[in-house]
UniProtKB/TrEMBL annotation:
The keyword Acyltransferase applies. Its EC number is 2.3.1.-. GO terms for molecular function: acyltransferase activity. Keywords: Acyltransferase, Transferase. This is GNAT family N-acetyltransferase. It is an enzyme of class 2 (transferase). It comes from the Bacteria. Pfam families: Acetyltransf_1. InterPro entries: Acyl_CoA_acyltransferase (IPR016181), GNAT_dom (IPR000182). Residues 112-256 form the N-acetyltransferase domain. PROSITE patterns: GNAT. The keyword Protein biosynthesis does not apply.
């Protein structure tokens, strides 16, 4: 093929051109937690290396990208540029019918109330979100947190407070746990279920998930999906206890 020319056409987008035709595009996005994610889509294989080299020269590290767990060719391409596996994440289908999920017998733990999505105090919700993320990062590192899919201001990890239901424990000044659900047509994504470290092992996480799935089932949504880091044993146990079935998976690659 003729020489490929790479042009940065916008602050976060690059184009590869050959024979006056666009043969590939690359872009970078900043997730709410601050991580930079790259994406490259090419129509001629030779354009990938040129795009990757140019983008990496223009951007600071660390950098991240996502590839399908079975896409060995694309993984190898990124590995040539110094990317390594940062995390492995499975995508799971969740039935919303409590008779299928096994959550039909779930009862709220003593002293716990769940506030439905949209009813949480935003200040308390943001405090809980920040506290949970700080706890996870201090204990095992940020990598086990979901790869956020919603765009927002840098550092603002709570993109849309109306998507969160929260658990309130009697006597607490703040919230004990949260669950985020984003509806997409006739399905929904359970993006995060999390409980404060000092409030775990009380059944709060299971109660929050049961609340979320029950609401979806009541609205006629038959299934949801969620992503779980393969190393996050408690989250995997919770998902599987709710009847989750692994559908696919992906790798998060990182270049430091």
């Amino acid at each position: 093929m003729d020489t490929v020319t790479i042009t940065r056409v916008a602050q976060a987008q690059w184009e590869a051109v050959a024979d006056d035709l666009v043969v590939g595009r690359g872009d970078v996005s900043r997730r709410p937690d601050g991580r930079l994610f790259l994406s490259i889509d090419v129509w001629r294989d030779a354009a990938f290396d040129r795009l990757a080299a140019t983008m990496l020269a223009d951007l600071p590290t660390p950098l991240h990208t996502l590839v399908g767990e079975d896409d060995h060719d694309t993984t190898a391409r990124w590995e040539r540029f110094g990317f390594t596996v940062g995390r492995r994440e499975g995508a799971y289908d969740l039935p919303t019918d409590p008779r299928e999920s096994g959550l039909d017998a779930t009862r709220l733990p003593a002293g716990v109330t769940v506030l439905p999505a949209g009813e949480a105090d935003e200040h308390l919700l943001r405090s809980l979100d920040r506290a949970i993320r700080d706890e996870v990062e201090a204990a095992v590192g940020r990598r086990v947190l979901p790869a956020e899919l919603l765009a927002g201001p840098p550092g603002d990890t709570l993109v849309d407070p109306s998507k969160y239901a929260v658990a309130v424990l009697d006597g607490d000044a703040g919230y004990a746990g949260l669950v985020r659900v984003v509806r997409v047509r006739r399905r929904a994504r359970v993006g995060l279920v999390a409980v404060r470290a000092d409030r775990r092992r009380r059944g709060i996480g299971r109660a929050l998930l049961a609340h979320a799935l029950e609401g979806l089932h009541r609205d006629g949504i038959a299934s949801a999906w969620t992503e779980v880091d393969d190393s996050d044993v408690p989250a995997l146990a919770l998902a599987r206890a709710a009847g989750a079935r692994r559908a696919t998976g992906h790798l998060e690659l990182v270049r430091r």
